[in-house]
Amino acid sequence: MRKQWLVKTRSVRPATKYGGKDVVDIPRERLDQYRNLKRDFKEEKYINLNPIQRGGILTLEAREALLEFGDGYSTCDWCPPKEARLDAIKRPPIAQFMRDLAEFLNMDVARVVTRCREAQFIVFATLGEPGDYVVVDSLAHYSTYIAAELARMKIKEVPHTGYPEFKLDLNAYADKIEEVRRDTGKLPAAVLLTHVDYLYGNLNDAAAVGKICKKYGVPFILNAAYTAGVMPVDGKKLGADIIVSSGHKSWAASAPTGILAIKEEFAEKVLARSKTVGDWSKRKFGLKEYALLGCTVMGAPLMSLMASFPHVVERVKRWGEEVENARYLVEQLERIEGTRQMGTKPKQHTLIHMESDGLYKASQTHKRRGFFLYDELKRRGIVGIQPGLTKHFKLNSYGLPREKVELVANAFLDIAREQGLNVS
Ligand SMILES: *Cc1c(COP(=O)(O)O)cnc(C)c1O
Questions:
Q1: CATH code of 370's domain
Q2: What are the pLDDT digits (tens) for 321-380?
């Protein structure tokens, strides 16, 4: 076989035979756009206020880890043959990291998955059966709803108050659990609370929901996508049975990375091993955690999460300063005529939702209409406010040093004054 192949390649053969006709070719001009890719809004050049960006800015260590572990399955050189799973790898120290991650969240077992949404799906699919209910807060991220949908489960929502606080009625978790029991004769498969919601940045009292879940014996999932990794989160104190979070949102890691942390009593169910047997070959895969499809993030993104972990362990201790910065920014923005913070006050998180009748009024007569705010901020080196929005917009001050928070505040005040708005 091999000899034949050698003879063939030596013989003079038109390149088109293999490189031409039978192979799809992409025009060079189109391929050129993929060379030397650049990002417009790099951290060194702009202050990016987009709420989803602030907690995911890499540490220097994580940037270096990306290069070191950039090749394909770079974490898998020392995969132990007897355990044959990502979380068992000792070199690099992935196995230890899983234990440290669990300890940091005061949970028992941890895994890294691709995203918070995947963690939610894994938990829904393993804790319940198709047709079961999950009780969720009505400010949950869309991915919570979709993860439940893919797990073929039904949703029961806990309501929230209206304008301007949009506060969840946490006591209603008990009512909704009762409602599901009354209507189906069965408890919901799980309860989920979004620790801080992505719309208003309201922080919820997770411990209160934890107590309700304990009373009913329903597993409590805390969605800590906007909290774990930026602020202290103690799973046991909050009564969480499962914590899900997002590495690229809140742990200074690259996408895709998600965190799944579990209390011992649910680990067996969520991390159940494969039982499938090939009907003809009798092949089995009993070491693999089937809901994780065996292995998850087997390369650079996981290494970025690990490389940033020492920084993350430290940074959550400075959460108090972060909240102060957010409150300062709100106070400054509210100096602009007709401008107020949405959600509960005072801020307990750095994700801020502002309403501004003033900036909206200015947009009505501006030649760039609603885009003027985006343009004016960008001119001042600030991005991340959604282009076109003035009446309602979101921003996140997380991780900005005080000088930069002041720079942002002054930029807004300047823009408002330029538009002839009152600044108190
Ligand atoms: C951003 C966010 C998610 C999605 O996180 P991924 O890691 O991208 O899946 C899920 N839930 C909440 C509450 C979020 O804010």
A1: 3.90.1150.10
A2: 999 999 999 999 999 999 999 999 999 999 999 999 999 999 999 999 999 999 999 999
What confidence tens digit (pLDDT) does each residue in 224-268 have?
999 999 999 999 999 999 999 999 999 999 999 999 999 999 999
Q: Is any atom of ligand 1 closer than 6 Å to the C-beta of 250?
A: no
- What atom of ligand 1 comes closest to residue 143's alpha carbon? 10
- The pLDDT tens digits of the residues spanning 146-203 come to 999 999 999 999 999 999 999 999 999 999 999 999 999 999 999 999 999 999 999 9
- How many Å from the N-terminal Cα to the C-terminal Cα in the chain? 84
Domain membership flag for residue 206: yes
Q: Note the pTM of the prediction, 2 decimals.
A: 0.94
Which of these, 10, 97, 104, 115, lies nearest to 52 by C-alpha position?
A: 115
- Output 286-290 pairs: Cβ under 8 A, ≥24 positions apart: 287/83, 287/84, 287/85, 288/84, 288/85, 289/85, 289/111
| Over residues 133-152, mean pLDDT | 98
- 44, part of any domain: no
Q: Whose CA is nearest to atom 8 of ligand 1?
A: 115
Considering the domain architecture, whether residues 78 and 198 belong to the same structural domain is answered as: yes
Residue 396 forms beta bridges with which residues? Answer: 351
Residue to mutate (ligand 1; options 116, 223, 398; most atoms within 8 A of CB) = 116
Q: How far is the CA of 361 from the centre of ligand 1 (A)?
A: 33
Please give the distance, rounded to the nearest whole angstrom, from the Cα atom of residue 116 to the centre of ligand 1. Answer: 5
User: Ligand 1 centre and the CA of 243: distance in Å?
Assistant: 12
